[in-house]
Amino acid sequence: MKDSLSDIIDGVAIPTSYKIGYISNYYREPSFREIEQKLGLTRPETLSLIFLCFTDGITVTDICDFSGHLKANISRAAVALERKGLITRQPSSTDQRRQLLYVTTEGRAVHDRFMGGLRQREAQMLSCLNSKEREQLDALLRKLCGHARDWSADPVVDVGQEDVTL
C-alpha cells in the first residue's frame, strides 16, 4: 500500500472515529478471536461475562443498554453461557418476567483465564504514553463515553436523498 498509516487515519472523512475504531479493532479483534479459539466463547459471550463479573444480578436488557449491543446477540450469549454452566438465570423477585443473570464459580474461573491477558494487552497498547498522557486520555475517553448516548441514536443515512439500490 502506497499510503502511510498517518495519511489514511488523518485523510478519511471521519478521522477521529476512524482512529478510535482502528485502536479498538487492534485491541479487540485478536483478543476476542483468541478467546473464541481457546475457550469457545463468542464475542457476545465474552462481553457478557466481563460485564457480569463486574456486576451480576442484572438482565440481558441491562447489558444491552450499557453496551449498545443488539438484544438478540446478548440473549443468545446468555443462553449459551447458561448451557456452558458459566452463568445462571433466576427470575426477579419483583417481576417474574425478568431473568437476572449471575456468574457461577466456573464462569469467574473462565473470566480469570482471559482477563490477565486483556489487561496485559491494554498495558502494551498504552505503553507509548507517559503517565500524564494516560490521565489525559482517560479523562477524554470518560467524557466521550458520558456523551455517547446523546448522539448515538441519530441517523447516519440521509433519507431525504434519492434512494440508491445496491
**How can the largest sheet be summarized?**
2 strands, antiparallel
**Strand arrangement across the biggest beta sheet:** 1-2
Number of strands: 2
Number of helices, counting only DSSP H or I runs of 4 residues or more: 7
Order of helices and strands: HHHHHEEHH
Radius of gyration: 19 Å
Structural commentary:
The protein has 166 residues and is mostly helical. The protein has a domain at 43-146: Winged helix-like DNA-binding domain superfamily/Winged helix DNA-binding domain (Arc Repressor Mutant, subunit A). The chain has seven helices and two strands; from the N terminus they run αααααββαα. It has helices at 5-11, 15-39, 43-54, 60-67, 71-83, 105-126, 131-151; strands at residues 87-91, 99-103. The chain is globular and about 55 Å long.
Comma- or semicolon-separated keywords:
166 residues; mainly alpha; Arc Repressor Mutant, subunit A
Sequence-ordered SSE layout with sheet pairings:
Layout: H1 5-11, H2 15-39, H3 43-54, H4 60-67, H5 71-83, E1 87-91, E2 99-103, H6 105-126, H7 131-151
Antiparallel strand pairs: 1-2
Helix pairs in contact: 1-2, 2-6, 3-5, 3-6, 4-5
